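Consider the tokenized backbone below.
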């Protein structure tokens, strides 16, 4: 799988979580912010796993932690909402290749 295809698949799996977990009236903004968050974290995760040999679990844990901080900073989400979004979205996209 190429990086653009992997990013597109990640966005297809993760953006619905942003839409579902958005605060009232903030769906469009949070989905936009989720695209930005993924544009920042996905290339780093791809590089870490495929080219640097970092384990998938370690990479995903780092991505979740980073995304919680990014959702707080970019979208102004509460810690809990940011954590639930980052964890649920990344669990889904990380597990998908193993379920197909």
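A designed sequence for it:
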């Amino acid at each position: 799988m190429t990086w653009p295809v992997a990013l597109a698949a990640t966005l297809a799996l993760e953006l619905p979580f942003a839409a579902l977990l958005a605060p009232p009236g903030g769906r469009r903004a949070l989905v936009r912010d989720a695209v930005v968050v993924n544009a920042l974290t996905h290339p780093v995760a791809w590089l870490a796993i495929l080219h640097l040999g970092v384990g998938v679990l370690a990479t995903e844990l780092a991505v979740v932690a980073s995304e919680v901080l990014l959702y707080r900073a970019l979208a102004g989400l509460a810690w809990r909402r940011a954590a639930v979004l980052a964890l649920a979205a990344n669990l889904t996209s990380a597990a998908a290749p193993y379920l197909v």
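The chain has a mean pLDDT of 95.
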